[in-house]
Design brief:
Strand content: 5-15%
Largest sheet: 6 strands, parallel
Number of strands: 6
Distance between the termini: 49 Å
Low-confidence stretches: none
Keywords: DNA-binding, Phosphoprotein, Transcription, Transcription regulation
Shape: elongated
Protein name: Response regulator transcription factor
GO molecular function: DNA binding
Organism: Microcella pacifica
CATH architecture of the largest domain: 3-Layer(aba) Sandwich
Strand order of the largest sheet: 2-1-3-4-5-6
Pfam families: GerE, Response_reg
C-alpha cells in the first residue's frame, strides 16, 4: 500500500486529487495539507511514503517544504503537481529533492502512474517537462563575464551612462562600450536593460 499525503492550498483541487487517488488500488491517502508549513508538519508526523506537493502556496512554497521534508525524512519522496512549468520552478523543485514534476493539466492516469513510479523509487516527469530539461542540458554553458565586464554592468544597473562609467573606472567611453558589447554577446541580449535583468536572474550581479 502506497501511503500518500496531498498538499495543495486550493480545497477543490486538493479534494479532486484525493478522490482520484483513493479510487486506485494500492494507494491510501493518509492526510491533507493546506500549505507548505502544514505539509512539513503532517509529513513528519504521518510519515507517508510520498507527498503530492503543489508549488505555489502561501507562506512556505512547495520547493521549500520539499527541501525541509527531504532533509528531515529523506525516505519520504515528493511528487510535485503544479500548473507552472517554468525552468525556474522545475529546477527549484528538483534541487529541493523532488522525485517527480507533473502538471495539473495532465491526464488522471499520468498522475496515478507518477505516484506509483515515485513511490517505487523512480523519477516521474511530464513529457513537456522532460523535453525542457533535455533542451536545457543541451544548451551550451553561458560564457562567464570578466571582472571588468561585471563591474561595468553593475554601474549600468546603478543608472550610469557610458561616460559616467568611464569617469568612475578611469576608462575611455569607447572602452566602456566595448565591454558592454562583449557582455551583450555573452548574455545573448541586445540592450542594457535586458543585460542587467538577465545578469540579476543568473546571480551575476
Amino acid at each position: 500500500m502506497i501511503r500518500v499525503l496531498v498538499a495543495d492550498d486550493h480545497a477543490v483541487v486538493r479534494a479532486g486529487i484525493v478522490s482520484l487517488l483513493e479510487a486506485e488500488d494500492g494507494i491510501e491517502v493518509v492526510g491533507e495539507a493546506v500549505d507548505g508549513e502544514d505539509a512539513v508538519g503532517r509529513a513528519l508526523a504521518l510519515r507517508p511514503d510520498l507527498v503530492v506537493m503543489d508549488v505555489r502556496m502561501p507562506g512556505l512554497t512547495g520547493d521549500q517544504a520539499t527541501a525541509r521534508i527531504r532533509e528531515s525524512a529523506p525516505e519520504i519522496r515528493v511528487l510535485v503537481l503544479t500548473t507552472y512549468e517554468s525552468d525556474a520552478s522545475i529546477l527549484a523543485a528538483i534541487e529541493a529533492g523532488a522525485s517527480g514534476y507533473l502538471l495539473k493539466a495532465a491526464p488522471a492516469e499520468e498522475l496515478v502512474a507518477g505516484v506509483r513510479s515515485v513511490a517505487a523509487g523512480e523519477v516521474a516527469l511530464s513529457p513537456s517537462i522532460a523535453a525542457q530539461l533535455v533542451t536545457r542540458m543541451r544548451e551550451p554553458a553561458p560564457a562567464a563575464l570578466t571582472p571588468r565586464e561585471t563591474e561595468v554592468l553593475r554601474l549600468v544597473a546603478e543608472g550610469l551612462s557610458n561616460r559616467e562609467i568611464g569617469e568612475r573606472l578611469f576608462l575611455g567611453e569607447a572602452t566602456v562600450k566595448t565591454h558592454l558589447l562583449r557582455t551583450f554577446e555573452k548574455l545573448g541580449v541586445s540592450d542594457r536593460t535586458r543585460a542587467v535583468t538577465l545578469a540579476m536572474e543568473r546571480g551575476l550581479l
